[in-house]
């Protein structure tokens, strides 16, 4: 029904306001609408405020909640966690109908909220704008199902498949943008939706990036800036070190000098030494370590070598490639350097135009359909 789509879109807008302030919980929005089409309550989840979106909306509606339709972007919970079950609250409030965009991805609770509501005599419909709702919580789904974060490989790419001009063309540390300002604004929104952004030491030495969230949107946890640096070549005068406020993490191997470890620690940089193979930081173990820190979404902003290594290690779940109408030539830095194996063909491919650029997105793994894994200590 058109009215269901209309109100679910409003709930999705609210869920997007939940992004950045709900992690490590899902971003959820809810609206309560009376039979005559009047909106009487709405809300979104904020982790520190505890209350789920449904509770915020019910409190705003008060007695007017009776007989309403609740539009919620994620199945109302049926279990006790940090708060009580939202399904029970909807039942007590006298809500007549519930429209949920998607069921809870947690296999332990999937469908139980819907069942509880239906047993109470409430009409329930699931699946309205499901794809849009799931995109908002891909990271939560991946984490709750597998125990691992969603990994998105992001890059700005020229028409001839390059991500940067030939080495030496651009002075060290000077920004060089392939894509439009509008595309870069979307990248900031992507960073805002991420818990961590990860790069390699080569990118730090070449570009001296900040890797901060400059979206201007509120977030409850600082964006974790992660660097893979096997032998700790990270310069003490680089912008990452100079701006570190317990939000920079470096993974290295046994090759890292002890003195450099102490110097970085004194500057508030978290350094974790891992047993590497061939002198390289083990990517799969890095992903597990980030999971232990409740990181649900990781964005890779890397050079060609690390892009290839991430693909070869099969840790990438999603590609977000911003293609720009420029040519950088055969000496430009390629998107991938060497083998970049993929287990299967990309799925759920979509594209959209952003000014003169084209954003191509594709999933390599469905975050809503994966099996639980065991995390190493």
Q: How would you describe what is shown here?
A:
It is a single chain. By secondary structure, the protein is an alpha/beta fold. The strands form three sheets. A nine-stranded mixed beta sheet has the order 11-10-9-8-12-6-13-16-15. Strands 2-1-3-4-5 form a five-stranded mixed beta sheet.
Task: Reconstruct the topology from this structure.
Layout: H1 2-18, E1 29-33, E2 39-44, H2 53-61, E3 69-72, H3 86-93, E4 97-100, H4 112-119, E5 123-126, H5 130-136, H6 138-146, E6 150-158, E7 162-164, H7 181-192, E8 196-200, H8 201-207, E9 224-228, H9 239-242, E10 248-252, H10 258-266, E11 270-273, H11 283-292, E12 297-300, H12 304-312, E13 318-324, E14 333-334, E15 347-354, E16 357-363
Parallel strand pairs: 3-4, 4-5, 6-12, 6-13, 8-9, 8-12, 9-10, 10-11
Antiparallel strand pairs: 1-2, 1-3, 7-14, 13-16, 15-16
Helix pairs in contact: 3-4
Number of helices: 12
Shape estimate = elongated
Percent of residues in beta strands: 15-25%
How are the strands of the biggest sheet laid out side by side? 11-10-9-8-12-6-13-16-15
If you average the pLDDT, what whole number results?
A: 93
Q: Assign the structural class, choosing from mainly alpha, mainly beta, alpha/beta, alpha+beta, or little secondary structure.
A: alpha/beta
Largest sheet: 9 strands, mixed
Which regions have little confidence, pLDDT < 50, spanning 5+ residues?
A: 373-377
In angstroms, what is the radius of gyration? 22 Å
| Helical content class | 25-40%
**Tally of DSSP β-strands:** 16
Instruction: Note the gap between the termini.
Output: 49 Å
Pattern of helices and strands = HEEHEHEHEHHEEHEHEHEHEHEHEEEE
């Amino acid at each position: 029904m058109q009215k269901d789509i209309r109100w679910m879109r409003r709930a999705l807008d609210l869920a997007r306001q939940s992004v950045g302030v709900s992690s490590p919980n899902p971003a959820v929005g809810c609206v309560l609408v009376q039979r005559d089409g009047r909106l009487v309550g709405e809300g979104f989840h904020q982790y520190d405020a505890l209350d789920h979106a449904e509770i915020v909306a019910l409190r705003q509606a008060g007695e007017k909640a009776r007989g309403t339709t609740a539009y919620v972007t994620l199945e109302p919970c049926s279990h006790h966690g940090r708060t009580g079950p939202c399904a029970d609250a909807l039942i007590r409030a006298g809500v007549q109908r519930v429209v949920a965009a998607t069921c809870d991805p947690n296999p332990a609770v999937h469908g139980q909220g819907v069942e509880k509501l239906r047993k109470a005599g409430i009409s329930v419909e699931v699946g309205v704008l499901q794809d849009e709702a799931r995109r908002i919580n891909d990271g939560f789904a991946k984490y709750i199902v597998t125990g691992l974060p969603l990994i998105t490989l992001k890059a700005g790419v020229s028409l001839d498949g390059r991500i940067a001009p030939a080495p030496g063309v651009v002075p060290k540390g000077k920004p060089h943008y392939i894509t439009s300002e509008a595309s870069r604004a979307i990248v900031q929104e992507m960073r805002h939706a991420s818990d961590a952004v990860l790069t390699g030491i080569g990118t730090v030495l070449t570009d001296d990036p900040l890797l901060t969230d400059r979206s201007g949107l509120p977030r409850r946890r600082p964006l974790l800036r992660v660097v893979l640096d096997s032998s700790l070549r990270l310069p003490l005068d680089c912008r990452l070190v100079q701006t570190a406020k317990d939000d920079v993490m470096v993974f290295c191997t046994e090759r890292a000098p002890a003195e450099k470890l102490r110097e970085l620690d004194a500057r508030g940089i978290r350094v974790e030494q891992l047993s590497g193979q061939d002198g390289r930081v083990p990517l799969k173990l890095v992903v597990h370590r980030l999971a232990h820190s409740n990181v649900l979404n990781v964005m890779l902003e890397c050079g060609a070598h690390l892009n290839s290594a991430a693909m070869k290690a099969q840790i990438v779940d999603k590609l977000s490639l911003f293609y720009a109408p420029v040519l950088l030539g055969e000496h430009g830095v390629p998107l991938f350097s060497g083998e970049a194996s993929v287990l299967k063909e990309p799925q759920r491919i979509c594209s959209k135009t952003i000014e003169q650029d084209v954003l191509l997105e594709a999933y390599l793994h469905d975050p809503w359909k994966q099996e639980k894994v065991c995390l190493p200590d």
